[in-house]
Structure formats: C-alpha cells, structure tokens
Specification:
By secondary structure, the protein is mostly beta strands. Helix content is 0%, strand content 51%. Strands 2, 5, 7, 8, 9, 12 and 13 form a 7-stranded antiparallel beta sheet that branches. A 6-stranded antiparallel beta sheet has the order 3-4-14-6-11-10, with no helix packed on it. A two-stranded antiparallel ribbon has the order 1-15.
C-alpha cells in the first residue's frame, strides 16, 4: 500500500489531557496499551456532575471551506458503550458493543467506518465537508444508556481513546502521530519496481 502525502492537523493526537479542552471528565494519559503496542492511550472518565461530559479541540482557521476532510480516532470500550463524535454541529453516535452508527443530526458527514484493530480497539472515521467559517470543533462526548449528551455521571464510567487525526483528502490514511504541532507524512515512493521494458503488453502479468 503506497500512501499519498497527508497532514494531521490535530496538534496533539494522543495528549487528550493537556492538548484538548474538557468538561465534566477526567483524563488519564498513558493509561493502557494502544494499537501501536505502547502504553500511551488515554482513559476518559465522567465525573458526577449533570451536563455534557466531553473532550474537544477547536481548530480555528485550520480547514478550508468546501474541502473534504476525514476525522478518525481509535476507541476502546471501558464501561461506556455509547459515545458521540462531533464536527461542528454535525455528529454521529456510536455503539461500541454493536459497532453501529446512529446519525441523529448531520449536515455534512458521510462515509462512516469502523475498523477492527484487535484487542478491542476500533478506528472510527467519517468524512466531512468544511463550512464557510474555516473553523471546526472536534468533540468526543460520553453518552448515557439513552444516548443523551446531557446526564448525571456516576464518576466511574469511562472509555479509552488514542490517535485522533484530521486530514484533507478523499479517504482516510494510516495514523500520523503529532505531539504539539501539525505533522506531514511524505508520500510513499517505490523504487526498482520495474518499467516498460520489464512489464509490457504481453508479459509480466
């Protein structure tokens, strides 16, 4: 698989504690083993307040109006089975038990995907088209069993997250880690893969 050059525009793709904003949750970075085999995934736990239990990152002037982007994040079930991924005012709700999407309110989200990465980790992704503001807020909401974003937490319910990514393109590519700034992965290049003298119209098929 040769991938094109892509940039992850989320500055801190794994640091959900200090790199993102949060409301009515506690976050423990480096809590469990992530899909890359390191202990660098975050545990997101709701507190006992009433309201939205959410982690979010506001990226001002980071997207271009009318362009297509993919948002993706690796998620593992803790004790919560429902959560919501939101871009701006559009959102998709996910049941991690059944690996299914519900789209209660979506203006510009398409191509929802859930990929199994083993050890109960799943990569969730969707495509969105940037609106005219050029700004986006990407949010990760915990939901109660009624799939509500506003509820009274129990202080212990949790879910795990790792590897958030937003990239400009027509499909999601492999994960690009960031640790304080956006990062561009250069395109893959294959050398010595043959030419027209090796592969012509009658041999080398």
């Amino acid at each position: 698989l040769l991938e094109p050059a892509r940039t992850n525009i989320i500055p801190r793709s794994e640091d959900f504690d200090t790199g993102w904003s949060k409301s009515q949750v506690t976050i423990n970075n480096n809590n469990i083993i992530s899909p890359d085999g390191s202990q660098n995934a975050a545990k997101i736990t709701e507190n006992t307040d009433t309201g939205s239990h959410v982690v979010y990152d506001t990226l001002n002037s980071s997207v271009t109006s009318g362009n297509s982007y993919y948002f993706s994040c690796f998620v593992k079930k803790g004790t919560k089975r429902y959560f919501q991924l939101r871009e701006g005012f559009s959102n998709t709700q996910i049941n991690i038990d059944t690996n299914t999407f519900t789209v209660p309110y979506s203006l510009n989200l398409t191509d929802y995907q859930i990929q199994n990465y083993g050890n109960d980790w799943y990569r969730i992704s969707f495509k969105f088209t940037a609106d005219s503001s050029g700004n986006s807020q990407f949010a990760f909401y915990l939901l109660d069993d009624n799939q509500s974003t506003s509820y009274t937490g129990d202080g212990t319910a949790n879910i795990y997250a790792w590897g958030a990514q937003i990239e400009n393109g027509s499909y999601a590519t492999s994960y690009i880690p960031t640790s304080g700034a956006t990062y561009q992965r250069q395109s893959d290049v294959a050398n010595g893969a043959g030419n027209s003298e090796v592969f012509n119209d009658s041999e080398g098929v």
